[in-house]
Amino acid sequence: MVLEDSDMECVFEIEISEHDVETPHGRVHCTMKGVPKADRPVILTFHDIGLNHKTCFDALFSHEDMQEIMQHFAVCHVDAPGQHEGANTFSTGYEYPSMDHLSETLPVVLKHFGLKSVIGMGVGAGAYILSQFALDYPTMAEGLVLININPCAEGWMDWAAQKISGWTHAMPDMIITHLFGKEEIHHNHDLIATYRHHILNDMNQFNLQLFVKSYNSRRDLEIERPIPGGNINARTLKCPALLVVGDSSPAVDVVVSPKTAVFPYTLHFILYINTCFFFSVPAASMTRLVRSRTASGSSVTSFDGSRSRSHTNEGNRSRSHTNEGNRSRAHTADNQRGRSQTDQPMDTAGNSGVDQAVLKSTEVSC
């Protein structure tokens, strides 16, 4: 189904419902936006520590560039126990779920809503939880968008630093250093003040401490890259995953390290949806998306040229799914030049920028 531009620009209302889902590991607050469609998965989100679904995802899903997605996919926001607005304080002695247990709540959430599968989008702790979920329940995960993920257990040096900083810094300071890089903290005072105010005034402090402790006690995901002819029982993700990290994010070194090379990766989110589900966004809308992102100074780049070249066939498949195959083959020479200049901004002249955005399909640096 292809929508006309006039259809894309019309205002539409999204049905919103809130649910408290009982699971073996506690009650989980969920917010469903839109009506799930039988032939499509739902986008399921999970937030980071110090945040909830509103502070973590509302700005993203309210952005005009996401409206094409919102018209075609329902979104289920999951809040970790006790992290949603107005949450009651847990009783003293309450045992907060581990990261593994939190991932085990998600099949119960899917069953509650009658869902067969989801596209997971997680940030930090939420990215870790969704990865664990996809490893344990591969048939329920169609794909993953993992932002600032750290798949490794906290080392003893990190543990010691947390303990020492805990003596001298309040919980908000510890969370701020997790969410933002040093440059952002030192220069963007208004942003940091906004998040500090949110953590202090909108979050239940006791519940938040339990969630932070659970995340800091995580274990290695113990994920392996699938090798042709290798161990068929290797613990690997069966779905594609898109890794996203900011240039100044405190997680950047972890995301681009060899440890995260075990994650398969794919395209910009809207192109990713097109590739996986043959959903067609109008070319005019895609061109506006590429232009708007280029104007804001962002670009799609490759951290590993050889890895990008190894996925040329995947790029060709994605172009065929977006009905751009013939035009892409006619621009082979331009495409090859685009791959050799992965540090340059995308060309936005006409629809060629869309083709190049497809080709530059690796981790995304924001």
UniProtKB/TrEMBL annotation:
InterPro entries reported in the protein's UniProt record: AB_hydrolase_fold (IPR029058), NDRG (IPR004142)
Basic and acidic residues bias (residue ranges): 311-337
Chain segments carrying region Disordered: 296-366
Primary localisation category: cytoplasm
A GO CC term assigned to this protein in UniProt: cytoplasm
GO biological-process terms attached to the record: cell differentiation; nervous system development; Wnt signaling pathway
Biased composition (Polar residues): 296-305, 338-354
Keyword Cytoplasm: yes
Keyword list, A-Z: Cytoplasm, Developmental protein, Differentiation, Neurogenesis, Wnt signaling pathway
Location in or out of the cell: Cytoplasm
Gene3D superfamilies linked to this entry: alpha/beta hydrolase
Alphabetized Pfam families for the sequence: Ndr
Function text: Contributes to the regulation of the Wnt signaling pathway. Down-regulates CTNNB1-mediated transcriptional activation of target genes. May be involved in neuron differentiation.
Entry's family note: Belongs to the NDRG family.
Name this polypeptide is given: Protein NDRG2
Organism expressing this protein natively: Denticeps clupeoides (denticle herring)
